[in-house]
């Protein structure tokens, strides 16, 4: 079997699994969001469809597909259709670089968990894709040819590009320390020291906080959900969308939330790495076996879920910012802070040889 | 051979984006086929809180959005410059550190000047 055929078959299987993970994760997030918000507000939450309302997300998706797909006469038809497509395609494309676990040996081949976790531009690819995500939202706002949509799209674009700067600069601290842009190598750096607990969050606490705040703004989640501030803008950029086209924005938002949680855990909390690697080696679970890989996936998944629950928890706890406060925080606090963080990190590496 | 293997490495990324686009196209088509189609004139107007829409939405908007975008461009290019430097810092050593420090300080001065001038003021 040639390398190309093997790559394509490998890709096909992994892509099918990952698409399912994305869609299932999105519905799990929707369910969790509704349940947790209900508990926080002392309600019961969805409990009619299936046991404990577990089938609620499926019912929602069926409903969205069956809805009338309205496009306003005044809208720019082609772009109106393109916008949700672009947003969703980019949100799914990011999953190509996420490593879910290290690798398993199948016969003579080494199969990595993830589509391209070793690629040497991993971090850049994430940043590029989040930037393209802005196009989808702005395009949706403009193509709807509605005043609310346009304002929502503009606000969203300004907010996302502002926080993208501090996001990119806070990541630089991690890259300076690890000296690589490949996600798997960043995880290996975190595993190979301090008994597998050399997590970046201990080396880069300020960078972590900036990244956390910026990822809330990047995913348009409360307290930064200005683009869809209901009292002012009806629905923001997705006011004129209905049916599954609205659902695609919704899906992309939740997929982006999962991506942000995944990157927080990969870059700052060791991703799939297990603490005390020698211990796992000594009881026979060496690298390359299925059981080790599944344990690593478990480690990653637990961190991912903690962050997702944190995202939801914040949404139902913290009130929305005002727009000038949002911009001030981004440009006057987070941006200088992340530049100083970068500067201090570089100085420590140069003068103390970390 | 090495060129080929680099291409092989990047192929999955492009394919994954295509898969995303295919999923998106499927959703769009299903949404347009499955839903009810009972269009009326009122349904197809743009939403303006129940009023009859007037004027075009492609109207003038606040200059501040434009200013933000221009500032973003300046600083994003800065970030693009810093990325390769960050990966190579240990090899570049002292010289690279000093060079990039000057670059960063100049840009910080620019940022503070812009803040002082009120270029990022929202009210």
Q: How many beta-strand runs of chain B?
A: 0
Oligomer: heterodimer
Give a quick account of the main beta sheet of chain A: strands, pairing sense, barrel closure: 2 strands, antiparallel
CATH architecture of chain B: Up-down Bundle
**Cα-to-Cα separation, first versus last residue of chain B:** 59 Å
Radius of gyration of chain A: 21 Å
Gross morphology of chain B is: flat
- What's the overall geometry of chain A? globular
What structural class do helix, strand and pairing data of chain A support? mainly alpha
Order of helices and strands of chain B: HH
Average residue-wise pLDDT of chain B: 83
Overall pLDDT of chain A, averaged?
Answer: 86
Q: DSSP helix count of chain A?
A: 13
Q: How large is the share of residues in beta strands of chain B?
A: under 5%
How does this model look, in words?
The complex is a heterodimer of chains A (354) and B (123). Chain A is mostly helical. Chain A has one domain (65-352). Chain A contains 13 helices and two strands, in the order αααββαααααααααα. The model of chain A has no long low-confidence stretch (mean pLDDT 86). Chain B is an all-alpha fold and 123 residues long. Chain B contains two helices and no strands. Classes of the chains: A mainly alpha (354), B mainly alpha (123). Chains A and B meet through helix 1, helix 2, helix 3, helix 4 and helix 5 of A and helix 1 and helix 2 of B.
């Amino acid at each position: 079997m040639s390398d190309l055929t093997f790559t394509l078959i490998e890709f096909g299987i992994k892509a099918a699994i990952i698409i399912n993970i994305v869609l299932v994760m999105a519905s799990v997030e929707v369910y969790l969001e509704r349940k947790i918000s209900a508990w926080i507000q002392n309600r019961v939450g969805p409990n009619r469809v299936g046991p404990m309302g577990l089938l609620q997300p499926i019912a929602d998706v069926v409903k969205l597909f069956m809805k009338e797909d309205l496009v306003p006469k005044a809208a720019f038809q082609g772009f109106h259709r393109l916008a949700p497509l672009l947003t969703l395609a980019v949100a799914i494309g990011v999953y190509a670089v996420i490593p879910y676990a290290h690798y398993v040996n199948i016969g003579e081949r080494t199969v990595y968990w993830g589509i391209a976790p070793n690629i040497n531009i991993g971090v850049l690819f994430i940043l590029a894709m989040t930037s393209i995500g802005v196009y989808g939202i702005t395009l949706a706002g403009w193509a709807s040819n509605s005043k609310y949509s346009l304002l929502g799209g503009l606000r969203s674009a300004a907010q996302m590009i502002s926080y993208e700067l501090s996001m990119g600069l806070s990541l630089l601290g991690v890259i300076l320390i690890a000296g690589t842009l490949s996600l798997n190598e960043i995880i290996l750096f975190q595993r190979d020291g301090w008994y597998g607990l050399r997590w970046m969050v201990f080396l880069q606490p300020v960078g972590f906080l900036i990244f956390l705040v910026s990822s809330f703004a990047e995913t348009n989640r409360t307290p930064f959900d200005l683009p869809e501030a209901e009292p002012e803008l009806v629905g923001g950029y997705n006011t004129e969308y209905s049916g599954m086209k609205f659902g695609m924005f919704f899906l992309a938002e939740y997929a982006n939330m999962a991506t942000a949680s995944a990157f927080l855990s990969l870059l700052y909390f060791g991703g799939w790495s297990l603490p005390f690697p020698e211990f796992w080696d000594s009881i026979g679970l060496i690298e390359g076996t299925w059981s080790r890989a599944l344990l690593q996936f478990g480690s990653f998944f637990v961190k991912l879920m903690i962050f997702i629950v944190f995202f939801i928890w914040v949404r139902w706890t913290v009130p929305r910012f005002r727009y000038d406060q949002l911009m001030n925080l981004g440009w006057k606090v987070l941006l200088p802070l992340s530049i100083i963080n970068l500067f201090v990190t570089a100085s420590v590496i140069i003068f103390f040889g970390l | 051979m090495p060129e080929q293997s680099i291409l092989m490495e990047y192929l999955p990324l492009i394919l994954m984006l295509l898969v995303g686009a295919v999923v998106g196209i499927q959703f769009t088509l299903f949404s347009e086929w499955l839903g009810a189609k009972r269009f009326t004139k009122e349904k197809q107007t743009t939403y303006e809180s129940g009023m009859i829409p007037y004027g075009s939405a492609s109207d003038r908007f606040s200059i501040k959005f434009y200013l933000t975008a221009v500032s973003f461009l300046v600083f994003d290019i800065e970030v693009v410059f810093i990325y390769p430097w960050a990966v190579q810092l240990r090899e570049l050593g002292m010289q690279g550190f000093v060079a990039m420090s000057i670059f960063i300080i100049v840009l910080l001065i620019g940022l503070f000047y812009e803040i002082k001038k009120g270029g990022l003021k929202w009210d």
